[in-house]
Amino acid sequence: MSQDTVRQSHGPHHASPPEAVVRRMDVDPRSGLSSAEARARRDLHGPNALPASARRSAFERFLLQFHDILIYVLLAAGAITAVLGHWIDSGVIFGVVVINAIIGFVQEGKAERALDAIRDMLSPRAQVLRDGHRREVPAEELVPGDIVFLASGDKVPADLRLVEVRSLRVEEAALTGESVPVDKAPDPVGRDVPLGDRASMAYSGTLVAYGQATGVVVATGAKTEIGRISEMLGKVEELTTPLLRQLAAFGRTLTWVILGVAAFAFAFGTLVRDYSAGEMFLAAVGLAVAAIPEGLPAIMTITLAIGVQRMAARNAIIRRLPSVEALGSVTVICSDKTGTLTRNEMTVQRVACADRQYVVTGSGYIPHGGFEERLDEGSRAIEPAGALLDSARAAMLCNDAHVRREGEDWTLAGDPTEGALLVMAMKAGLDGGFEREALPRTDVIPFESEHRFMATLHHDHEGHGRIYLKGAPERVLELCARARSEAGDGELDIAYWHARMHEIAADGMRLLAVAVREDADAMRELCFADVEGGGFTLLALFGLSDPPREEAVEAVARCRAAGIRVKMITGDHAATARAIGVRLGLDERVQAITGADLEKMDDAALAQAAADNEVFARASPEHKLRLVTALQSRGEVVAMTGDGVNDAPALKRAEVGVAMGNKGTEAAKEAAEVVLADDNFASIAAAVEEGRTVYDNLRKAIAFILPTNLGQGGIVLCAVLLGITMPITPAQILWVNMITAVTLALALAFEQPERDIMRRPPRAADASLLDRFVLWRIFFVGVLLVAGGMGFFLWEIDRGQSLELARTAAVNAVLVGEAFYLFNMRSFRESVFSREGLTGNRYVWLAIGLMALAQLAFTYAPFMHALFGSAALDAATWLRVLAFGVVVLIVVELEKLVVRLRADPKSNA
Ligand code: ATP
């Protein structure tokens, strides 16, 4: 039965009671669909994915390659050349334009596929009930009838009829444009209410802002509301970034300049030098085609795409291309602690009760280990009872994690903090199934970083109710009036508990407290007021260890060397945060600033504090936003990590928002520019390194390509000014440009990070790709190439050689000069006279090999002679040409030496 017939025969899902919809979808809400049934339904309905957005057709993309003012100029030149009857020149111009377009088309296609593959790594997942078990599946595998769980931060994976709801609020901007989250409830609503008011439904593509819910899938894929209203969701992102747009604008300006110079040359040649108009027109065309860098845009795109691929290989997945550039100029990284800087492998190691303290043995999620009581001298093993056992029970029941045994391994589903508590309770001898059966949960307030606690309401079978509270100790302590000890419940000794907290936190452990209130028989629902009314009895304080990641310690050091400050922002206790901060190698002198401290500051004080300190504790997502803003007000370029739904504003605000791929919510990923596949701080540092490399390689490609254009343009202009025959024809010029772009320059896109890339200070965010140094280098090498090309031409003519031979020598001189210059450009400033410098990038050798083959064909193949008017060279000429290349290599290395000496007179390496 198709979904449409279902709708028609029973009325819309939103207007029917949930039980009716569940029945209609033919599923048992307690066990979900069976795997076999899910497979069958999937075959029927297809995957839960929107049809890929209508891409531009291949032909259209090919045509777009010609849509560039530089190319228009070339096409016009080709057409006029044809009208003048110079068929070969005109054919070559068109030929090169087409070849360039093909290459651009192929490379762009590759780049797009690479990015698509990376985007696929981000496909969302869904929590679903199948075969009676809760499990996580790719959202694409959902079928109508699946029972799906939603929690705060999730992206709703399909259209759901809500069955059970706990304070659910959903942000439906994707669907209705309304960005204020709306409340949801399972009760049916009127048949004809508009989408935005159907509180009983959660629609695919919207985001859970708060709360939890269970729902049954009523529509998937293109049948969902979002699938209906927009056929082409997931807009194709353009392969460009602000810097590249800046460069494109530069290209347009350059074209006008080139046309101006060509017009000037035409006027000068015909009026002053007595060239014929036809001859001079060809020269002007030659000048224009020489100076236009046709290959540059394709090289830029491919460099960017390679950078993005490399980042993905290092676990940083780029969601928005401009962030590649921003990554390269980051000055501050604000990172979460838990899981990013630390391993997030929690183990409860200490328990403090009102009159006794315990050490828990064992590690990881294997529930093997026991309890030892700490005595003045040594410790002794004990069997948990009394307050200790009560606290273990509270920790087990006020908990949403599950650990499961799979062979020898124990795996955790859920939050590691809760997993650790669960395992601790198992070590205390409690059985999860039994406890949950004896004290079923009636209601829950889920944990949120904002309020830093979780509470659950339970009733036993006699109807006695109790609330368990678990959370950050300061929060829990505030709500407690008494504490439980072996002797029974007594007064709460605040000083005692604070001393225990400091002791445990100073060891770098995360703190959690559990409490109970036993007067809840009449309660059926749990709301904030019930918890915040207080009256709890404190059971125990837990210390959980979570050691720093080794890679993170290293990465922090690398960032600091690179002039990037690392700040740790955590929800943990100040003493815990400081202890971990010290182990990570953050600045030891400073104190941990707490969220409460931040709240007391005005904007100026906050900006100062944000700049001076590196550890921020007990911070909530709102503080993150204030910190980003404060740092930005001081001109910093900020990368900020986050995982929760409430982190989204800070992620959006930061120049580079970084979401966690594993523990991050869909809401955080959606707001972020970068997603870390492994949640690891080291991957951020790697992404920064690659970001710097991309920028470097873009500059290298520009500094490599443009001298060819300048050099050849210069040669033509010199010839016009001197009134001599053109040393190089338009067709030959195009040949040189093409060979440079498709072989040599491409090699630079694969260039690895330079050795000192993480020892340089961050680049200014507004720095131009074409800074003075790059412009100087282009000019300097351009002049060398003019000298080489002109020199060889004049020398051969002077020796009485044919025009064809002299031109062939000039062409080879320019290309060989570029080939040697390619080695120079492997580094802007460092010498390449080393093993690494000469052999470090095998693409350089590959490119040179290809170029050599092309040049041999150009020089010796008869059809090339016919096309390009080239001629065979003898060995002596080749030797001279190669010698010129070596001269270019050495002269540029000398220039680098001068630059290095001027930058740092002491270094002469
Ligand atoms: P990060 O360092 O990644 O910012 P965090 O995990 O340190 O995050 P939160 O998750 O906001 O910060 O946790 C803050 C405090 O809340 C913890 O120190 C702990 O005391 C308490 N807490 C953490 N998880 C839970 C939970 N599941 N239930 C109850 N309390 C929790």
Automatic annotation (TrEMBL):
Signal peptide: none annotated. The chain crosses the membrane at residues 62-81, 87-106, 253-272, 284-308, 701-726, 732-750, 773-793, 805-823, 843-863, 875-892. One of its GO terms (cellular component) is plasma membrane. Coiled coil: none annotated. Residues 1-24 are annotated as: Disordered. CDD domains: P-type_ATPase_cation. One of its GO terms (biological process) is intracellular sodium ion homeostasis. It is found in: Cell membrane. Residues 12-86 form the Cation-transporting P-type ATPase N-terminal domain. Keywords: ATP-binding, Cell membrane, Membrane, Metal-binding, Nucleotide-binding, Translocase, Transmembrane, Transmembrane helix. It comes from the Bacteria. It is a multi-pass membrane protein. GO terms for molecular function: ATP binding; ATP hydrolysis activity; metal ion binding; P-type sodium:potassium-exchanging transporter activity. Pfam families: Cation_ATPase, Cation_ATPase_C, Cation_ATPase_N, E1-E2_ATPase, Hydrolase_3. Belongs to the cation transport ATPase (P-type) (TC 3.A.3) family. Type IIA subfamily. This is Carbonate dehydratase.
